[in-house]
Amino acid sequence: MNATDQNAVFDVEAIRREFPILGETVYGKPLVFLDNAASAQKPRAVIDAMVKTMETGYANVHRGLHYMANVATEGFEQARETVREFLNAESSDEIVFTRNATEAYNLVADCFGRMPGPHGIGEGDEIILSIMEHHSNIVPWHFLRERKGAVIKWVPVDEDGNFLFEEFEKLFSPRTKMVAITQMSNALGTITPMQDIIRVAHAHGVPVLVDGAQSAVHMNVDVRALDADFFVFTGHKVYGPTGIGVLYGKSEWLERLPPFLGGGEMINEVTTDSVTYNVPPHRFEAGTPAIIEAIGLGAALRFMMDLGRDRIVAHEAMLRDYAHERLREMNSLRIIGQAKEKGAIVSFEMKGAHAHDVATVIDRHGVAVRAGTHCAMPLLTRYNVTSTCRASFALYNTCDEVDKLVDALRKAETLFA
Ligand SMILES: Cc1ncc(COP(=O)(O)O)c(C=O)c1O
Fold first, then answer.
1. Burial code of 238-269, b = ≥16 C-beta within 10 A, e = fewer?
2. What average pLDDT does range 253-273 have in this prediction?
3. Strand partners of residue 390
4. Cβ-based neighbours of 237, under 8 Å, separated by 6 or more
5. Please, are residues 417 and 350 in contact by the beta-carbon 8 Å criterion?
6. Cα 28 to ligand 1 centroid, rounded to whole Å
7. Among 335, 341, 322, 401, which residue's Cα sits nearest to residue 368?
8. What percentage of the chain has pLDDT greater than the value 70?
9. Mean pLDDT for the chain?
């Protein structure tokens, strides 16, 4: 059976066979890969698309006076169109390829910090973030705080990790210039009410940047239905390669933003004493882009769309519920983050044990989880913890793997708890 046949049952075993690495063993045990929020594994379709590009269709893009340049340019621009379809953006001109999600936040923050006019961010202007943000959607705004005197305001979460909407609404003032908030927390799994966040921000005339690094993987995202001004995600978490990320920006915003990095591709004309800039998205893509990686990303998104994003969401919801049920059986664990709306990410700590030690012990049983701050230090401070273990699920994980996680944790429990 074809693993991407949407009419078929979600045949997770057939899907797993599409991911060569899942056949690997570690320390003689089958690999149980539950570190997907950090980076996901790659299906054959992505590997093949990238190898095929290098073997049969590679040259530099957009300078095409020869056959291969045209083949590569077509592949690269087709990938942009696939991203447009994946996000349901209006135009592929709204899709900017970046190095990763991190570069995209830096681009938006830096450009807003230099943009003339009422939307530019300067001294005393305010940016609203949530306490759940990943450092990549915090530090670029800290740069504006340090360099321009901007002010960051934080939306809190409650003990369960729910986004406190009423507190969010109170943070607006006439100086609010940007709302930059995650649609799904990488550390807690919390899903934020993004549609309402955007509605309220727009009522104040404020644009919204959505951190979609996790939501693009685990939810069925539609930037037009959301009315997002900016939406960011990263290739390696959506089963694509590293080195490629996406900034979606509404045309009206991208057209207004000044350039970010300077170099080839982003200009119209350069003289010894002047320069004019290209239109979006090329204005923001200085230098040779990640051609092979963009094509790999296109293949990854096609793989997800062929599989059926609603079916992926349903499978992961089942895994989330099963993982919570099984982990709650263990008295030694404290689950951090039990929001009403949450995706298939479970953070926890084990009584009496450091997260790193727990992760190291269960690794010996073939189970890969992440331990640490998850690049969300303000959030961990909120919960008064210095690190947690995090099991994060992907479309190829199974209930049997949840059981293996629990078995391995039971072994760790005998050592520490
Ligand atoms: C919620 C969230 N935002 C942003 C990022 C940054 O992604 P990248 O490191 O690919 O730029 C991550 C990665 O962990 C993330 O989980």
1. bbbbbbbbbbbbbeebbebbebbeeeebbbee
2. 96
3. 347, 370
4. 36, 37, 38, 39, 40, 213, 214, 216, 217
5. yes
6. 31
7. 401
8. 98
9. 96
Query: Partners of 127 in the beta sheet?
Result: 152, 178
Mean pLDDT of the region 153-180: 98
Report pLDDT for 1: 45
Tokens 């479309």 sit at which residue? Answer: 395
Give distance in angstroms: CA of 253 to centre of ligand 1. Answer: 23
How far does residue 40's CA lie from ligand 1's centre (Å)?
12
Tokens of 183: 């649609």
Average pLDDT over residues 344-372: 96
* Atom 2 of ligand 1, residue of closest alpha carbon: 213
pLDDT at 258: 97
Q: Kindly give the distance from the C-alpha atom of residue 244 to the centroid of ligand 1, in angstroms, as a whole number.
A: 12
Ligand 1 atom closest to the Cα of residue 374 is 14
DSSP 278: P
Query: Poorest-confidence range of 70-84, 181-195, 226-240, 372-386?
Result: 372-386
pLDDT digits (tens, 9 = 90+) for 294-329: 999 999 999 999 999 999 999 999 999 999 999 999
Q: Is 389 a catalytic residue?
A: no
CA pair distance 236, 101, nearest whole angstrom? 10
Atom of ligand 1 nearest to the CA of 375: 14
Ligand 1 in reach of 293 Cβ (< 6 A)? no
Cα 52 to Cα 144: distance, rounded to the nearest angstrom:
42
d(CA 388, CA 187): 9
Task: Give the pLDDT band of residue 9 (cuts 50, 70, 90).
Answer: confident
Q: What Rg value do the Cα atoms of the chain yield, rounded?
A: 22
Q: Is the CB of 211 under 6 A from ligand 1?
A: yes
Nearest partner of 39 among 155, 213, 251, 210, judged by Cα: 213
> Probe ligand 1: pick from 134, 191, 345, max atoms within 8 Å of CB?
134
Say whether pLDDT at 253 is over 90.
yes
| Nearest-angstrom CA–CA distance, 362 and 391 | 11
What atom in ligand 1 is closest to the CA of residue 235? 10
Distance 374 CA to ligand 1 centre (A): 9
DSSP assigned state of 235: G
